Amino acid sequence: MAVTVDILVALGVAAELVCCLGLLAMPSPIDRLHYAAAGTVAGPVLIAVAVCVEEGLFTANGLNAVVVALMLTVLGAALSIGTARAIRLRERGTLEASDPEQGRR
Whole-angstrom Cα distance, residue 36 to residue 43? Predict the structure, then answer.
């Protein structure tokens, strides 16, 4: 079981490192936002699973890990949507779809 926990933690840390490198490498704010959003889901979920494997799901530590991972996932998505809307409003001056974007629907 210790090997499973070690692998899950290593995968969680690796996922966060990939997200950090993506933030550094991407040129546009929207591209960077994709990596920031992934950082609120991939790593925390793997770490929460590792805690649940080590401590058990129905313990205080296991339930806390699950709640934190769920909150990061939900609130991270909401924050990403709000940030994307702010970026679009700043770059284009409106949230309305342009003519080419309407033609794609």
Answer: 11
Q: How far apart are CA 75 and CA 93, in angstroms?
A: 26
Dihedral in degrees, nearest 10, Cα atoms 30, 35, 37, 40:
-160
Helix (H) or strand (E) segment spanning residue 88 = helix 60-92
Token pair listed for 56: 């058990």
Q: Which amino acid is at 59?
A: T
Which pLDDT tens digits describe the chain residue by residue (105 residues)?
899 999 999 999 999 999 999 999 999 999 999 999 999 999 999 999 999 999 999 999 999 999 999 999 999 999 999 999 999 999 888 888 887 877 766
CB 51 within 8 A of CB 65: yes
Q: Where along the chain do its domains lie?
A: 2-94
Decide: 61 and 51 in contact? Cβ < 8 Å. yes
29-39 vs 42-55: helix crossing angle, rounded to 10: 10
